[in-house]
DNA sequence: GTAGGTTATCTTGTATACAAGAGGTTTATA
DNA sequence: TATAAACCTCTTGTATACAAGATAACCTAC
């Protein structure tokens, strides 16, 4: 019988907790949360995505996305438009403010990534990423 | 410039998401969430812990613990008592219901751990755990 | 013995997360 | 072209998470 301390679900939860806290602190100057930033990164990859497509790319429920989108719209980072072809679809675009900041935001995320991994060798980094990507039930 | 898809914060968040979902599904029959179960595992390790000590062991804010504790008390899994020596301290004990179920709950957590790791070799499992434990800013 | 600092917990406010269901839009099909 | 089926988004309810402040109990120095 192993302790919860050695359970991968627990270990993973706590590593995730530390990673989130690190990124959160670095995004504080922008008044953006990690998820809000990630949402915008998806739009940087492809602007004008639908809410559902954003959810598929960053693996989030539309119920969760609704709140994040609301706050991003209120803060002026993105705007929401109904698709002209399909009235069901809500498309999201970066505003000028969003476009102006997205490069710096991406750098912040990348810097966080590098700092979190700085204690590991190149082999360990690749291995960790591979194991986590393969990780599923 | 790397994509958010290769960022360790994102990869970690999604692996965590899958692990939580897997454990959550297995705990459904008990009407317990992963965090509620983890809280009880801490008490199995040492019954009568204070709220603060539980928070240190499972790395959770007392604000978060308050809600979890409330729900566990309401459902009859644990009881809350003020320490006889120190009126500030709230001690938590497993009830009879809690004690009766904790073994099965621990087995469920362990089974989840095993299933999540079944695709990995023994070496990979140890490596993954070590890398995640070392993982910090 | 009491003022003042420390400690432990609780409360409030904000932000994820997801299940489940509602509502509106489009598409398929008879 | 009705009408059912499918699709997309939004809303509601529950459960983490944490920051910041409030509250109550304890302890220390004088």
- Summarize the amount of helix of chain A as a percent range: 55-70%
Beta-strand segment tally of chain A:
2
Oligomer: homodimer
Number of domains of chain A: 1
Characterize the largest beta sheet of chain A: strand count, sense, and whether it forms a barrel: 2 strands, antiparallel
What name does the CATH topology of chain A carry?
Arc Repressor Mutant, subunit A
Mean pLDDT of chain A: 97
- Total helices of chain A: the number is 6
Shape of chain A: globular
Q: Greatest interface and its residue counts?
A: A-B, 52 and 52 residues
Q: H/E series of chain A, N to C?
A: HHHHEEHH
CATH architecture descriptor text of chain A: Orthogonal Bundle
Span between termini of chain A: 21 Å
Structural class of chain A: mainly alpha
Q: Could you explain how this protein is built, in words?
A:
The structure is a homodimer. Chain A is mainly alpha-helical. The first copy, chain A, has a single domain, classed as Orthogonal Bundle (Arc Repressor Mutant, subunit A), CATH 1.10.10. Chain A has 6 helices and 2 strands. Chain A has helices at about 10-25, 35-45, 50-60, 60-75, 95-115, 120-135; strands spanning about 80, 90-95. A two-stranded antiparallel ribbon of chain A has the order 1-2. In chain A, a hairpin with a 7-residue loop joins strand 1 and strand 2. Chain A is globular, with a radius of gyration of 17 Å. The mean pLDDT of chain A is about 95. Chains A and B meet through helix 1, helix 2, helix 5 and helix 6 of A and helix 1, helix 2, helix 5 and helix 6 of B. Chain A binds a DNA duplex (30 and 30 nucleotides) through helix 1, helix 2 and helix 4.
């Amino acid at each position: 019988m192993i302790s919860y301390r050695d359970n991968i679900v627990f270990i993973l939860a706590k590593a995730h907790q530390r990673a989130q806290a690190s990124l959160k602190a670095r995004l504080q100057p922008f008044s953006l949360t990690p998820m809000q930033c990630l949402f915008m990164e998806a739009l940087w990859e492809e602007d004008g995505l639908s809410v559902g497509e954003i959810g598929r790319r960053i693996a989030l429920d539309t119920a969760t996305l609704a709140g994040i989108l609301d706050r991003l719209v209120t803060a002026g980072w993105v705007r929401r438009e109904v698709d002209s072809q399909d009235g069901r679809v809500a498309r999201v675009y970066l505003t000028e403010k969003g476009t102006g900041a997205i490069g710096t935001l991406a750098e912040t995320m990348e810097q966080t990534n590098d700092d979190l991994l700085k204690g590991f060798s190149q082999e360990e980094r690749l291995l960790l990423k591979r194991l986590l990507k393969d990780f599923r039930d």
